Structures are given as structure tokens and as C-alpha cells.
User: What shape does this take?
Amino acid sequence: MKNFKIFFALFSLIISTNLLAHEGGHYHKGDGVILNTWHLKTGSKIQGNFFFAKDGNLFLEQEEGVIKSVNINDLTIEDQQLARLKIEKYQQINNTNPNADNIQTIPTNPYKFVPFILLSFLVLGLFIVQEDFINKYIINSKIGLSSLSFLFVITILIACSKSEVATTSTVNNNNNTTTSITIPKTTTTFLDSAYSAFKPAVSTSFDNTYFYVASNGIPNHNMMIGITNWQQQVPISQAYSGTNSWSIPLQPVYATTPLSTKSNFMKGAVAIAVNGIPIFNALNNRGEDSYKIGELDNWGGHCGKGDDYHYHAAPLHLSTLNGLKPIAFALDGFSVYGAKEPDGTLMSSLDSCHGHITTGGVYHYHGTSDYPYVVGAMKGKVTLDPSTPAPENQIIPQAFTKPVRPATNPLNGASITDFVAVGTNGYMLTYKIGAKNGYVKYSWDANNKYTFILTDTAGIATTNSYQR
Assistant: This one.
């Protein structure tokens, strides 16, 4: 009977050790994790990170593991779109395996179960031997009890040890041999330092998966001047914030077959610059080089149909403020540098993706003044929006723009010669056709009512107002 009690006690010790040695956990106060903010149509807000969705409800994980559900239809339109993109993303991950050769694994502690095995044999041995032996050398012996306690402590320490952080990508080379490449997880400190020169106009946050970049979509430099192929769009602010922030993966994974920007990503951004402005494919949605056909301004950008300002060429001018730090981060998680390497040396030769691996063993892209300017092909694995087939496919998650007026048409022969701020909430754009000037003056008030005064080269003015 006594042997049974001893057996039960030791067996309980092993079980309790195994229970203590759990992995993972929830979001705790003070751990630095940023919870996303979701906006309801009623004007109220809910904080929590996407957990899963079921029967039209979104389930959010809050601090201390609390799960909060909200009906997707109760969210604002923008947050409904984001929620459905996240649902599609996770369904795609769980139901398909488009890159079977490209597998993320997190190595665990290989010695985790050794102490459990040793303790199991010890319990079995003690149960078999005589009761007198147990009493004399274990129960009534300081050395025996100390040894058993020491083994118990070591068991907990090994069992509770964390797994490695780096992710291993399995990549097939051209010779059909398989190599394993370990990519370290990007530190949030490194990412944040790249955006620090542009704060507070840009704000950043992060969770365990993504680094988020929020901005109003208006850069800290002038815009539009130099465009000779204009579609009459002008820059207005965009709500790139909260759940509509730009998302940079913290754990890059090499793609088995990098997707070329010549035949992909002609919709949406491929990178986010360190000043909070998205960078699109060098080719527009018609497959034309935006820079070569005169669509871009002196800073490599222009506005889309939503009056959203973005780059198509590399914003190399950002190196003036950022020095040797990155000028952008691609949406596969890899950084984009300017004309020099991170150590200050001249840029080394680039591969077909428009980047390379240099000092430190981590891949990065470079911006250049010639095609493809930023990204030639996505070196890293990305998730594609299933609703957008190539070549007008896009990477998700992707921030959304919010236009205030219908899309405009090209104005043949127009060249933009000036663009200036008017007051605190307005701009004046000047364009020229031949020897005559035309103007676009627009402003907005505190209630997001936008007023556009369009004056053509004949001096005829038209006023339109739009509510956002």
C-alpha cells in the first residue's frame, strides 16, 4: 500500500511537470503587444487581434486570452473588408498548399522529453524494488530526497525552455537538391528605427506576426510637379491606420518560385516606404512603365483613381533623411535599401528579384533609377488575394484607399507645373496645355466635405462638392 502511495506521488510529479511545461500563451498586460482596434457602425470600438471567424462572426483575442465576438456586418465597411481579407487569407493557408516545397517549421527543444523518460523509469524501478529500500535510501535519506528534487527542477527547466525563433525554409535549387535556409525573424527595433526619422507623421506598432505602419498617405515632400501624362487625379489624405494600416511580415520566408512583377501585382502595393507612402509595381495596370510614359512626378509618385498618392519608382530621395537605413520594406518582409549597402559600400550586383544577400546573410532589395526600380520579383512568399487574378492580382493583407469622387479621365497634353498647399486643408495644382494654364483648387472641412474648383485653360470654372 505504501509502495502504491509512493508510486502515485512520483507519477503525479511527472504529470504536474508536464502540465507546467506548456508552450505558447495569451496576450498579457505589459508584454508590448499591440491589439488591433476594430470600428463598429455605432461609433464604438473593440480591441483584439483576429483569432478566427464562424457563421458571420469575427472572434478577437484580447488580453489574458479573453475571446470577444462581433458580427462582421456590425463593423464599418472598411473593417468588414479587412475582416473578409483575413478570413480568406487563413482559409487559403489552411485549405491549400500552393508552395509545398516552401515550409515554415519552428524547431522545438530536442531534449524536451528526456527527463520525462528518465523519471518514468525511476518511478517504475522504485515501484518494483522493496519498500525497505525506498524508505532507507529515498524517503529517509537527505541525499536521496535532494537528488530527486534536483531532477524535478531540471525537468521543469528543460521542459519549459522556449523553441528557437528562426524559421527554416526548404528551397529546391535548379539541380533538384534540397537545401535548408534559416531566416532570422526581423526585430521590431530594426524596423522601427527605419521609420523613426518620419515620425510623428508615421506611427508604428506590432504583434507577433506583423509590423504595422500607419500614416495619412501624404508625404513630407512636394508632389505632382513634373507629370506629363496626367489622369486629373490629385492627392488627398487616406486613413492608413488602425486595422487599415500597412502590414510587414516579421518572419520572411523564401518563395520556391519568386513571382515576377512583370506578370503579377499590377494592383495594390508591393512595398511600403519609410515615410508611410505605398510603393506600387513599376508597371501600371495596363502593363506600362509608369515612369517612362510620364505618369510620375519628380519624386517617383502620382495618384491613383482614389486620389491616393503612391510611388511606382524607387523613392531614393528618402536616403537623404534615412542615411544607410532602409528606404522601404517589401510586403514579403525583406528590406529595401538605396544606392548603398547597409555598411556604406557601393551597391553590389543584383539578382533577377532586384536584390541579393550580403553581409549578415539576410536578403534585401535595392532601389535604383532604372527598371524594375524596386522589386523585380517577390523573393519572399506572399499571400495573394484570391479575388484578383494575375496580372492584376495583389498581396494581402493590403491597406484600402477611400476615394471621395468618381474616377477621372486623362487630360491630353497637360503637364503639371506647380503644386502648393493652400491653408491647412487644401491644395492648388497648376497645369499647362500649350501656353495656357489650368487649375485645380480643392479643400476639405472638419466634416470631411471636399470642394473642388476646376478651372480649365479657357478660364471656365466648375465647382463640385463631395462628402466622404
Summary: Residues 2-20 form the longest helix (19 residues).
